[in-house]
Amino acid sequence: MAVGKSVTRKDAAAKVTGRARYTDDLPMPGMRWACYVRSPIAHGRVVRIDTTAARRLAGVEAVFTFEDVPDRPFATAGHPYALNPDHADVADRRLLTGHVRYQGDEVAVVVARDRLTAEAAAARVAVDYEELPVVVTAEAALAEGAPALHPGGNRVNTLRFEAGGKVDEVLERADAVVESRYRTPIVQHCHLENHIAYAYMDDMAHIVVVTSTQIPHIVRRIVAEALELPLSRVKVIKPYIGGGFGNKQDVILEPMVAFLTLQLGGVPVKIDLSREECFTSTRTRHATVMRGRAAAGRDGSLAALDVEIFSNTGAYASHGHAIMGASCTKSCNLYPRTAVRFAATTHYANVPAAGAMRAYGSPQVIFGIECLVEEAARAVGMDPVAFRIRNVARRGDVNPLDGHELLTCGLVECLEEGRRRIDWDARRRACRNQDGDVRRGLGVACFSYGTGTYPSCVEIAGARLILNQDGTVHLQVGATEIGQGADTAFSQMVSETLGLDCDDVHVVSSQDTDVSPFDTGAYASRQTYMVAPAVRQAAEALKGKILAHAALMTGQAAANLDLRGGRIVFAGTPEEALLSLSDLALDAYYHKQRGAQLTAEASCKTMTNPASFGCTFVDLEVDIPLCRVTIREIFNVHDSGVIINPLMAEGQVHGGLAMAIGWALYEEMLIDEQNGRIYNGNLLDYKMPTFMDIPDLGCAFVQTREPTGGYGNKSLGEPPIITPAPAIRNAVWDATGVKVDEIPMTPKVLYRYFSGAGLL
Amino acid sequence: MAVGKSVTRKDAAAKVTGRARYTDDLPMPGMRWACYVRSPIAHGRVVRIDTTAARRLAGVEAVFTFEDVPDRPFATAGHPYALNPDHADVADRRLLTGHVRYQGDEVAVVVARDRLTAEAAAARVAVDYEELPVVVTAEAALAEGAPALHPGGNRVNTLRFEAGGKVDEVLERADAVVESRYRTPIVQHCHLENHIAYAYMDDMAHIVVVTSTQIPHIVRRIVAEALELPLSRVKVIKPYIGGGFGNKQDVILEPMVAFLTLQLGGVPVKIDLSREECFTSTRTRHATVMRGRAAAGRDGSLAALDVEIFSNTGAYASHGHAIMGASCTKSCNLYPRTAVRFAATTHYANVPAAGAMRAYGSPQVIFGIECLVEEAARAVGMDPVAFRIRNVARRGDVNPLDGHELLTCGLVECLEEGRRRIDWDARRRACRNQDGDVRRGLGVACFSYGTGTYPSCVEIAGARLILNQDGTVHLQVGATEIGQGADTAFSQMVSETLGLDCDDVHVVSSQDTDVSPFDTGAYASRQTYMVAPAVRQAAEALKGKILAHAALMTGQAAANLDLRGGRIVFAGTPEEALLSLSDLALDAYYHKQRGAQLTAEASCKTMTNPASFGCTFVDLEVDIPLCRVTIREIFNVHDSGVIINPLMAEGQVHGGLAMAIGWALYEEMLIDEQNGRIYNGNLLDYKMPTFMDIPDLGCAFVQTREPTGGYGNKSLGEPPIITPAPAIRNAVWDATGVKVDEIPMTPKVLYRYFSGAGLL
User: Fold this and answer.
1) Chain mean pLDDT for chain A
2) What confidence tier does B526 reach under pLDDT thresholds 50, 70, 90?
3) Which residue of B26, B202, B227 is the best one to mutate when testing the A interface, meaning the one whose CB has the most A CBs within 10 A?
């Protein structure tokens, strides 16, 4: 019925008309405001803290310093609980700290009757610091004798693996070896809705946390851990949320508001971060530096990739090394017939903590790989598209690292579709031998990505369906709508399996961990894939119950009956309705002697993680004297399996492309390497592309049918952001002959490269 | 484990500390207030209505008159939908009316930005009425030529039945026949929390109604019916509620707030009735007049009861004739070996609409019966207790009306326990031949009651259980905690079946009709009985899933395992724990390859309706010159099957006794028979007994084990209110020799009776 159709988003009208209520739209009587006291320096220890003046301010109800909070460290990363303690996230946070590790670190918190008072009081907390040496870069942080941010030193972890061959031997024997160093910046997610959460108690035992989160069930666990409470004493509610991009896959404010309401007798306490706080004191994308080598054969083979990468997780681990673990291993599906070696190190530094951000490290890793591959192709004199078609994954390939076969892979078709669509050969020819100020170039880059986190983490999703009296159904899931359209996709799946109109599937969009089926949340582009089996199983179970009741009502064998278009029909002659679903529902609810409320629930674990694939093609102009890049055409081609909703899928791709253009050309959080000071922690000084900076965006899909997916689908949410940056970099190279190995390619950076190359 | 124990109420601390949030504690930004324009006369037609002045007031956003609302009539009674349209409630209400039928009827509604403005604007709506003749009593309303309140006339319905013999023949042959007329007043429920509801929309399609109701799932249907919307477009949330006693088993404000938000673009609109509005414009207890005859034999047999009763439902039918239907038929279990005949008529009149109130007509009907039985006992010279023991129901008796056998009945034991406890024989002897101003008397009265509404209505309940990661469970039910302790009783049942501590059972106390299991709500003393099979079935299913997962983890056969005290044990040697439930839960949630979230849900219909029984004993003094009754001792003895929670059960009995004393001695809504004016529609002029007026209250239980009950229990919520009034009346007769046949027995009434008897 509905899968594959561009049905209108469930929440579209509610959101554009302003009816949708977000966390800040849900007030409570007696709500208190809490405001952090933040460190003005990037590294130091509090030697004296005086809260007297803050406490004296009328309207201030409490001040807690780092000395007043539980000493228990906890991890904030939004991962499911790991049964194996060795796999647990790094527990390096307390609610507040006396050892400040970045400019903005939290040393105290003030609770007051209103926001202004809380802010004014926070400003009155007098803190003296003993300053400590600051490390900002990988080099500085990992240098011998560097000041340690945490007891174990600044190296969080190093991952090393080699697969598909002996890389050193391949490099030695190769026809061509290329080597380069790449650098990617710290950027911020810049979701529309800042971090906000409040907590209160309706009784003596249970804390209710209302929060803008991607991961309500994980928030529940982490709040309980941070406060040393049984998990069932915490209830998390997720209203509509205004975007997250991974930044709300971290548990940042919730333990604090829960702590405060517990301390203050259950009164509601809210923290509503300003944009500036959200910028510097939530999470960022990890900056990376990478040294890579690639080996190619004259036959066009990509023989080896050798990658050493350093990932800067900032002041706290947050998702820490998981980012490198996930992105390096996921990239092994891209060139599965190539020998690969990775050495990836995650380190602390005195900058804001980095965490999950759309595509979770893959943009950084794939940026390096797709720059290297471009160089390898050139080194053996091959067209970059042809070289990639020669080497990328195909169906039936086996991942060299984990030995899994690719059951679906449409990457070659994606590249061919992109090449046709951009008229690659003709335009490339037209770009040869340019010498004007403004030069044109074409670029391409490929990616592979995963669908979920298995086998690193458990993959579990739940769905519950309720047949209403009017023949419609309500769908309750633990997976979260965070703006990506998940609820609509889920409703299409129910519609497909139950033979109902999509409008007759009502989705409970808010999660309440006390009653929502368990699901770990929105991340890893997992939801549409992981929820599918749960939705399908629940829908099939409900359908079975419906047909059984229809059998009772009609005296027919259930096996002869089917459900189509909201009607009970004979399976063989579906044109004629025996019974409407609403009449059936009324009977099930209200017949005095038979029936019951018909519901079905399923909780499913998934033990597969299919790779999705795709590529970006770009056609751009570089104005060399102005050091300005103008994109003429850019599009992605994706293999995400079956596309559940083409219009929403297109929206995801457009969003990812735009975000990637920001990362490639504009955005960087500027931090002083000497003292860790943040120069542009706000939307005025930080350059995010706006509508004026973004060209028309394109997309296409090569649809495969993933057999392990409930409805044939694979990941789509994050992938669109992965390859625009390397494609743009490769096109700039194509246009100018200058190989820019760092992003963002701002005019300042390009000026340095173009000057160095003698173009200016 | 927990059934039969006086575990502490789940909500006790939350309520006494003020943490529990009720509807009025849940604000919304932009909340609008709505205020009704009410009729100052009891019967008439609006001939002109001018809203100009109201609309001009700053802050007024809308005014709707009876001409602006849907013309569709709907029924407000909180009954489940009836598949048979002949069984539907009387649909005689519109949202507003131009034909006003009682003083307080709603002709218009004003919506404003705040309450004061709404009230001020409502006062500025100018309405001219054409006055119509007023009928207040049964006699006037049913007289020929009486002005008809509704198109079909003032007789709503008449029920006639005869069972257990031919009453006329028995009366003719009887040794003694007694006859009297009885009168009971209009009273108000006076629950702590007034009626309050608000509605809003979070999207374009769905209306959310938050309301203090006993019956959220029924509210959902009736709002949908009133607004002609599909049921699934309405969602009803029930927060903590401050009592209902049946008055919130009616759908009074919810259709209006839903209509207003729909009209006003989804903004939240609240109606919060004042105490005075709640008094006169919600529901009341039906006033009745009854003419009864009883026949007795010299052998002590109660041979026949012949009852004609008129029940005044006021301006609108509301629960209408169902009250008489239920109370007359339920009373047939009391003296099942007696021939009975009932003729019960429900009629309209120009007084506030009567609806459900604790025990749903039984106090009125049983008042008459137990006065008559007292007279019959005296007529054949028998002790009232002995006469009752001779005639009341015993186990194995068959209900003469429906032919059902009484599987449990402890009424004789209740009477014996009461007689012993009050030292009946000795005290009765001491009361003989009194002649002072202050005279003492003893009284007794018996009742039977039902448990639920089957077979009049469908009986259905649902429960869902979720095993939490910490080894506790959450219980979600559709049945409502309205202050009676239902949540605690349910948690005890779960505890009993799952072998968990009661504190480890968390109950979701608020209902949300989108996700709460279906249940028709709190009425008919049905919940503990109806919910039991659903809770038990869900708990057993969850236990099965837990043991199956334990089998996976331990390699043992599930059949050899059991769950005790939160641990998995060998069924045979339960002392040693194989596994804690929390370790099992963690494995089920987080093991990567096995398990799932463990939940279980059950929706159960019940097709039994066991009778519960009991009696009141009272010892009192009458000060004849002061016309004052002072209760020295009063208690009930109940057969409610197994008592789930003795302390809570005692609380129910105390509450019912206190409320009954109010009905017997103090409370009456005074209405002018000429013009329908209400004289005391407020808590200042209406005399509710307070702490000072209520003596120490007693109670005892005779525990039977009802085999059709999930945990052996039968109804208990309403029964305590049924018999104190006739017991008090019989004791006053015993003390003074004066047979008072109307309540409340205020000094004014007693003066009339005592004067008439020559005592004054």
Assistant:
1) 97
2) very high
3) B202
Q: Rounded distance, CA B435 to CA B626, Å?
A: 15
Per the CB < 8 Å rule, is B231 touching A14?
no
Whether A518 has its CB under 8 Å from any CB of chain B: the answer is: yes
Cα–Cα distance between A356 and A214 in angstroms, integer? 11
Specify the domain boundaries for CATH 3.30.365.10 within chain A: 287-454+608-756, 460-605
pLDDT of A1 higher than 80: no
**CATH-assigned architecture of domain B31-132+195-272:** Alpha-Beta Complex (3.90)
Q: What is the dihedral of CA A97, A101, A106, A107, to 10 degrees?
A: 50
If you write DSSP's letter for every residue of A601-612 in order, what string do you get? EEEEE------E
Q: How many CB atoms lie within 10 A of CB A143?
A: 12
State the helix-helix crossing angle for B646-661 and B724-736, rounded to 10 degrees. 50
Sheet holding B612-623, edge to edge: B438-449, B612-623, B628-639, B697-701
Chain B contact present for A25, CB below 8 A? yes
Sheet holding B473-477, edge to edge: B505-508, B473-477, B460-467, B599-605
CB nearest A202 (choices: B14, B589, B592): B14
Which residues in chain B have Cβ-Cβ distances shorter than 8 Å to A203?
A: 10-11, 13-14, 19-20
Burial of B15 (0-12, 13-18, 19+ CB in 10 A): middle
User: Could you confirm whether domain B287-392+400-454+608-756 is CATH 3.30.365.10?
Assistant: yes
Q: CATH 3.90.1170.50 occupies which residues in chain A?
A: 31-132+195-272
Chain B CB within 8 Å of residue A398 CB: no
Helices of type H across A153-284: 167-173, 216-227, 254-263, 275-281
Q: Say if the Cβ atoms of B231 and A470 lie within 8 Å.
A: yes
**Residues B637-647 pLDDT 10s:** 999 999 999 99
Complex ipTM over 0.95: yes
pLDDT at residue A31, as a whole number:
96
Distance from CA of A185 to the nearest CA of B (A): 35
Give CA–CA dist A431/A449, Å, rounded: 31
Residue B1 has pLDDT above 80, yes or no: no
Quote the CA–CA distance of B582 and A441 in Å, as a whole number: 61
Tell me A443's DSSP state.
Answer: E
Query: What mean pLDDT do residues B529-534 have?
Result: 97
Which A-chain residues 477-506 have CB contacts (< 8 A) with chain B? Answer: 506
CATH topology of domain A287-454+608-756: Aldehyde Oxidoreductase; domain 4 (3.30.365)
The reported pLDDT for the residue numbered B89 is: 94
User: How confident is the model over A107-118, as pLDDT tens digits?
Assistant: 999 999 999 999
Q: State the CB neighbour count (10 A cutoff) for residue A708.
A: 18
- Residues 71-130 of chain A with CB under 8 A from chain B are 80-83
Q: Does the pLDDT at position B21 exceed 90?
A: yes
- Tell me if B515 and A518 make a contact (CB, 8 A cut-off): no
Residue matched to tokens 């004259």? A298
Residue B192: name the closest of B364, B367, B20, B8 by CA: B20
Neighboring chain A residues of B241 at a CB cutoff of 8 Å: none
Q: Give the gap in angstroms from C-alpha A43 to the nearest C-alpha of chain B.
A: 37
What is the per-residue pLDDT for B574? 85
Q: What is the pLDDT of residues A303-338, one digit of tens each?
A: 999 999 999 999 999 998 999 999 999 999 999 999
Residue A634, pLDDT above cutoff 90:
yes
Write out chain A residues lying below 8 Å of B607, CB-based: 592-593
Into which CATH architecture does domain B460-605 fall?
2-Layer Sandwich (3.30)
- Whether B19 sits inside 8 A of A590 (CB atoms) is no
Q: Whole-model pTM above 0.90?
A: yes
A89-112 residues labelled b (16+ CB within 10 A) or e (exposed): bbebbbbbbbbbbbbbbbbbbbbb
